[in-house]
Amino acid sequence: MPTLNRSLIIACVFFALCFILATSLNAHLYAGWLLMMFFVSLAFFLRRYEMLKGYSFTVMILAAVSLAMYYPQYFVSVGEVKLSILIVPLMQLIMFGMGTGLSIDDFLAVVKMPKGVIAGVGCHYLIMPLVAFLITRLFSFHDEVAAGIILIGSCPNGLASNVMTYLARANLALSVTLTAISTFISPLVTPLFMQLFAGEYVHIDFWAMVWDITKIVILPVCAGLVFNRFFHGRSRLLDNIMPAISMIGIGLIIVVITAAGRDSLLVVGGYLILAVIIHNISGYFFGYWSARMLRMEEKDCRTIAIEVGLQNAGLGSSLALAMGKLSTVGLAPAIFAPVMNITGSSLALWWRGRPLQNAEESIDSPNADEPITSLRNHE
Fold first, then answer.
1. 54: buried, middle or exposed (CB in 10 Å: 19+, 13-18, 0-12)?
2. Which domain holds residue 57?
3. pLDDT tens, residue by residue, 185-227
4. Is the Cβ–Cβ distance between 279 and 49 less than 8 Å?
5. Could you tell me if 268 and 236 lie in one domain?
6. Cα torsion 65, 66, 70, 73: sign
7. pLDDT tens by residue, 159-172
8. 97 and 50, same structural domain?
């Protein structure tokens, strides 16, 4: 075993034991830092292995979340400025980055594969809101926390779905198209399902939510599309830095929400994590088998499963902020983000070990390379 790997393993074990000792002694002032260092060491260890490095970003998020849970005062505000004001601009920047990775051809693909697009979008917007509604009936959450579960279920596809589809040897062209289409219809579909399923929990201003989604998602994506149309291939620097900016942005959003909702998380955290895991895995399961029932090809079934199970958690967080309920409605989206990255990466790598007969075509085709250039690190 290389010396660096051995050192990282020793560091992981050391910080884990120190965290357990500090917690047992009620030395919580230090326990948070020790837990953070454990996750950081683990993240660096995971990056040493090609098959595992996809999890390193999520583990780093857990490191930051650990600090937010133990020391929330540092992540709520700086002086008199609340850090929550960063959420919407960061989300707009992330969606601009998504737009730069899309082109008009991604929307024209609807004509080439209408069955896959209709099935994918239909499954996504039927399965996830309905499962979310059933979960709120299964668990007795506070009304605003329950509304947050329905909110994440009503959001469009997550950006990470394109990366997971690529890893799973599935239909990348269909994945990119589904992400684009679900995103552009979200200003109407998301408020509709929120009004139908979450209206009994919180007040939903339909048209206000339409405008919030438009300014947070649609306008930045359109700006990115325009940028891609006129500056495609001319800005290598932007292509290189946007994935990193997106990852940092997602991390900051999750940390700020965790700090803001820390007290609520201490009360419902365990049950909410369980509910989110059930929600996420149900998306994969019902998405896959719905596609199978429609007699779709295996690679398309995998694609739809991933597209259904992964949500745009950043949008959910931004909408929770716009509703003025970041610390309650925003909890489910904040938890959903790291959970879906762990489960999505695991599912994609499991499928990758079971390649399709035409796997080489799905990976090496011209359609596979272009979107991955700008989207593969958004996970």
1. buried
2. 1-79
3. 999 999 999 999 999 999 999 999 999 999 999 999 899 888 8
4. no
5. yes
6. negative
7. 788 888 888 888 88
8. no
